[in-house]
Amino acid sequence: MTASSAVTTGTLVVPDARLYYEVRGTGPLLVLVGAPMNAAAFAPLAEQLAATNTVLTTDPRGHFGSPLDDPRQDSTVLARADDLARLIAHLGAGPAVVFGSSGGAVSALALAQTNPDLVTTVVAHEPPLRELLPDADEQRARTADVIATHALGDTVGAWRKFFAQADIPIPEQVLIEQFGGDREPRRAASENYWFAHELRATTGWVPDPPLLREVPTRVIVGIGAESAGQFCDRTARELALALGVEPVLFPGDHTGFVAAPAAFAAHLQEVLDAP
Question: What does the pLDDT look like over 21-37, one tens digit per residue?
Answer without folding.
Answer: 999 999 999 999 999 99
